[in-house]
Amino acid sequence: MKKNIFIFLPDGVGLRNFALTEFKNIGESAGFDITYWNNTPFSITEKIGFKEVKIQNTSLHPLTTVYTRARKRMELNFFDKKFNETVYNTYNFPHSYKGLKNAFKSLMVDTLTAFGSNEKGIKFVREKIKKGERSTTKYLDCKKQLELHRPDFVFCTNQRPTQAIAPILAAQDLGIPTATFIFSWDNLPKATTLVETDYYFVWSEHMKKEVLMYCPYVNENQVFVTGTPQFESHFDTTLLESKEDFYKKHKLDSNVRYICYSGDDIVTSPLDQYYLEDLAVSVRELNKQGYSLGIIYRKCPVDFTDRYDAVLEKYKDVIVNIDPLWSPVGQSWNEIMPTKEDFALQANICEHTEFVGNIASSMVFDFVAHDKSCLFFDYEQPQLKKGIRDIGQNYHYIHFRSMPSKEAALWVRNKADLTQIVKDIIDGKISNVSEGKKWFETIVGPNPTLASAKIWEGITAILKQ
């Protein structure tokens, strides 16, 4: 009899890796019966035609958000003390004290953090979260669904949502083995592992070390190194169009060499539009020198602001806007759903542009997969003032220490140097591709095309135990 696997989608983040890639086909070829246990507003049956069980109940215990916010702050405080650092707390963002409800919750978080930033306090909060979520109607509803469908395994596609806690607890309490996938390269040092499962699937040996370092309740035999499906599409040559077809489809000038500017979210890079403007000024300067350059602006799929509009209008002679092919099914960032078509679009932008410029983004890995350079902007804008986050702190984060050398990316640390650096990249005088590939292997692992297959191998191994 086929093993019944629930692929649990607590939010839309996991869709890209686990519903829109070859992941399902590979699992079915290995003999598994696959159902998507769907907590998102996106209907997988209607949109994709895959079998799903919808979780309709989204209730949380009233104190879960307080305890999970406190847990993150407590863990980051503890990491600073344990590892003799000051950087972990920079992963925190300010509380809101506006309104009585927000003020009450934030003061509770502050109190728990002040007295509980130690092993005993963190364990207390972890248990409080579990106890609270077990008392919810969501937990009971999920338990009923599991008893009805009797899956052999629950694979959670994202370890950070509070919405994932009750369903995973329900599975564990029924004796169903569970695993979670660590979905992003920066998640572990940020203390975002809210879901505690029986097994953990990670991208690389580097990430395995991080799990064991930051999650002391996890044993080595619980961690499977598999890679991530996130980058598989970059190695699928069937997705690539000819340069001529790509240019024609997006009404690009066949005489122009384009640079990609990959936009960031407003939290990571609140002044991002001004870096795009700086790049546009440099392109204009180089075009006066006889170059024929342009910029493809690809916005961050979850950026809902209009902050780029004035720049796009002012520099429309050199900037072409190509939006990601993501589909909104709600208002929050995790309700913007990717599409299969966007895999191809992103791969073709990487393939048919000269390099990418951005702020501290993992797009460095997408482009190095196409043997293209990445330029990180690392200077302050004159618009920076108190209350606006300086993008420079991004590069001090723990996950940037994984670079094999500073040459794993290209850097512009002075606005006055930007034009010359762009010129040198275009002329082939500088590149980060060689060192960038080493960084790619450190983070993504040595076999980026085999991640989906390796995840199914791991699930097979667990079920045989």
Q: How would you describe this protein?
A:
- α4 (64-82) runs parallel beside α5 (100-116), α4 (64-82) packs antiparallel against α6 (119-134) and α7 (137-149) crosses α8 (165-173).
- 40% of the residues lie in helices and 14% in strands.
- The protein has 17 helices and 15 strands.
- It folds into 3 domains: 3-60 and 136-227 and 450-464, Rossmann fold, CATH 3.40.50.2000; 64-132, no CATH class; 233-444, Rossmann fold (3-Layer(aba) Sandwich).
- With 465 residues, it is an alpha/beta fold.
- The strands form 3 sheets. A 7-stranded parallel sheet has the order 3-2-1-4-5-6-7. The protein has a 6-stranded parallel sheet with strand order 10-9-8-13-14-15, sandwiched between helices. Strands 11-12 form a two-stranded antiparallel ribbon.
- It comes from Flavobacterium endoglycinae.
- This is UDP-glycosyltransferase.
CATH fold field value of the largest domain: Rossmann fold
Estimated share of beta-strand residues: 5-15%
Provide the residue-averaged pLDDT. 94
Query: Describe the biggest sheet?
Result: 7 strands, parallel
Q: List unreliable stretches of 5+ residues.
A: none
| CATH architecture group name of the largest domain | 3-Layer(aba) Sandwich
Instruction: Measure the end-to-end span.
Output: 17 Å
The percentage helix is 25-40%
The CATH class label of the largest domain is: Alpha Beta
Overall shape: it is globular
Number of helices: 17
As laid out across the biggest beta sheet, the strand order is: 3-2-1-4-5-6-7
Protein name: UDP-glycosyltransferase
